[in-house]
Each structure stands twice: as C-alpha cells, then as structure tokens.
C-alpha cells in the first residue's frame, strides 16, 4: 500500500470514534511506557474497565508513582501496580520477566508502547544504538519472555491474550537499504556506531517502526493457529507527544506547526491502542498479525509486502532470535517450544 502525505492529512482530520469498552474483570493488563502520553491515557481507559490487575511498566520510579496517583485521582481505580523496566537495559527487561514469572499469574493484554525517537547515535549500556535496542530488541525480548504466561492464560481461562506493538504510519515512508537488508547481520549493522552516521540516523525512528511491523508479522507467521495468542501492530496516529522532545531548530518549529494543525491529543491516539487490544471480542482471530490504523485493519507498506521485504522480515527474525537468545536463553527455549520453524527465507 502507498500512503501519501495527503492521505495522512485526511486521516488526521477524521473524527475519531469513542473508545472501545470491554469487561476486564479478573484479567491482567500490562502497559509499557505507562507514565505519560499514549501509555498513560491507554492505562486510564483500561482502568475504567475493572481489570483484575493493571501493571504500569515504567522506567522511572518517581514518575511512575506520580502516574499511579493521577490514575487513581482521574479514574478511582486503586489497584494499579508500578513495575520498573528500562528497555535500554537488557538486564532490566529480564528482571521484569523474572518478577512476572514469580508474581504475575495470568496475562491477557500486553501493550508495548514504550519507544525512543532519536536522530543521534547514543550507545546503550549493552552497546547498541539506544532507539534500536528499545524499539526493536527489548520490545520483542519482553514479548518472547512473557509468551509462555500468555499461552498458559489462554489454556487455563479459555481466553485469547493479545500482544499490541505500537508502530506508526511512518513505516510507509522508509525501507531497508539493500546493502543492509542483504547483510546477515542486519540488526547488528543498524545498531553499530559505524553505521549510525548523522545521515543514516535521520530516518531511524521510521525504520524502527518498520521493524515493529516486521516483528509482528514474523511472530504471527510462526505462532501456530492452535495457540490463541494474537499479536498485532497499531498506528496511533500523529499525536502530541514527548517522543519528539529531542527535536531542535527548524525541525522543532516545523513539528510545533504540525502539532497545532494536525495532531491528536494523546487520549485520542490511545483509543486506537485500546481498539487493537480489545476489539473483535467474538472474532479476535481477525486481528492476528494485522496492522491497524483508523480503527480498522489496514494493508502495510509496499516494501513490507515485496519479496525484498519478506526476505528482510525473515532474516531479521532469525538474527533477532539469535541475539536475544544470547541475552536470555529462555528466548531460544520459548521459540523452540512454541513457535514453528518451517519458514522459508
């Protein structure tokens, strides 16, 4: 699908429907990046639906506590929990998964909303370009570590858990350079200091959103239909957000103008996250592996659907599993136990 600038403007001017509602009694919901923006607004919506457990996964203890207090004041929901996770630190992701394995019980909805938008190379403590690690390594790492809990939930409670990965329409406007896509170390190349020049970092955020789509599609391809866990990607639209706080100069001025003419509030954008997490309760399979925008399933970019894109998707999956398996052997074990391996690259 080709997505033009004009189509983007029209979509931003559309009247957005009200939030989808569901009964979450007894269910567990995790929202990453839950202390601000889309994550906090989505958390507020979930809180109005009486979840058994609502876990705010945040990087900052102090900001997370402020969010807990505000959530209670705004919604009256008092059972929310603050769990700390820093996606720029693999050990923090592993500790979060360890805690859930000990204390979490069932898991019905995982909203992977946390992301970084950066146009400068900043290495993480794990020696990856930070936005790539946060958006495309730690996001899949957590999903794959929590997958057994979601499968157990499906089996024990006869329900269909969902993984919601927040992507963006920006994935339509970028593709993986051929010299990178044909490299067996695609992710390692993209995450290296040598590759992350000022020029190459200009489209880094859009590229990470493309890889979000590729991850969801690759995971779906390997999830047997007998496992009722739904993985989907969602475009929240262009919203007022702290995500672009690093912008400066002309870019900051341009973004300021765009926000005032086109942007949704974070609350409006969060409705799309809720729609992807809770819609089609009677036919959840409709959302399996899908990319949603404007409250319906939408075709992904031409690059994703092209032979080149499919090859990049499968190669990036194999590399991702190898990288994450070295970070935590449970990834390798979960992939081998639960996911199929008969995918042709």
TrEMBL record:
The keyword Cell cycle does not apply. One of its GO terms (molecular function) is oxidoreductase activity. InterPro entries: NAD(P)-bd_dom_sf, SDR_fam. Keywords: Oxidoreductase. Pfam families: adh_short. It comes from the Eukaryota. PANTHER family: PHOSPHATIDYLINOSITOL-GLYCAN BIOSYNTHESIS CLASS F PROTEIN (PTHR43157:SF31), PHOSPHATIDYLINOSITOL-GLYCAN BIOSYNTHESIS CLASS F PROTEIN-RELATED (PTHR43157). This is WW domain-containing oxidoreductase. It comes from Mycena sanguinolenta.
